[in-house]
Amino acid sequence: MYLQFISFWGGFWEALVNSRELFFEASQLTLALTAVSIFIAIFVGLFFALLKISNIRPLEWIANAYIYIVRGTPLIVQIFVFYYGLTNVWMISGFWSVSLGLAFHNGAYIAEIFRGSIQSIGKGQTEAGRSLGMSQALTMRRIILPQAFRRALPPLGNQFIIGLKDSSLAAFIGVSEIFAVATTQGANTFDYMTWLLVSAVYYLILVFLLTLVVSLIEKKMAVSGDE
Amino acid sequence: MAKQMIEVNKLNKYFGDNHVLKDIDFHVAESEVVVLIGASGSGKSTMLRCLNFLEMKNSGEIFIKGNEVNPKKDNVNEVRQKVGMVFQHFNLFPHKTVLGNVMEAPTQVKGLSKSQAKKEGKELLEKVGLAEKANDYPSRLSGGQKQRVAIARALAMKPEIMLFDEPTSALDPELVGEVLQTMKDLAKEGMTMVVVTHEMGFAREVADRVVYMHEGKIVETGAPKDIFENPKEERTQAFLSSIL
Question: pTM of the prediction?
Answer without folding.
Answer: 0.87
